[in-house]
Amino acid sequence: MSDATPPQRIASPCTGVCRLPTGGHYCLGCHRTLDEIAAWSSLSDAERHAIMNELPQRKGSNHSE
């Protein structure tokens, strides 16, 4: 039996500023898409890591794709 604690899941990057501008693709607070926000609780750690790695590039580029 191991005393090691399981790794923490990656927390949501939500900042409480839940706003998607007209024609925008990403939330102004966390820079995720609506689909990513809705699915966050069921995503694997690998999927969460992939999204978290994209967030810095998304900041400031709230375009609709």
What do these coordinates show?
The protein has 65 residues and is an all-alpha fold. The protein has a domain at 24-57. Helix content is 31%, strand content 0%. It is built from 2 helices and no strands. It has helices at 34-39, 45-58. The longest helix is centred in the last third of the chain and has 14 residues, at 45-58. It is elongated. It starts with 33 loop residues before the first helix and ends in a 7-residue tail after the last helix. The model has no long low-confidence stretch (mean pLDDT 87).
- Secondary-structure element order, as H and E? HH
Rounded to an integer, what's the Rg over CA atoms?
14 Å
- Percent in helix: 25-40%
Shape: elongated
How does the major sheet shape up?
Answer: none
Low-confidence stretches: none
Which range does the strand content fall in?
under 5%
Roughly how many Å apart are the termini? 50 Å
Number of strand elements: 0
Q: Which structural class do you get from the secondary structure elements?
A: mainly alpha
The helix tally amounts to: 2
Mean pLDDT: 87
Organism: Litchfieldella qijiaojingensis
Protein name: Fe-S oxidoreductase
Pfam families: DUF1289
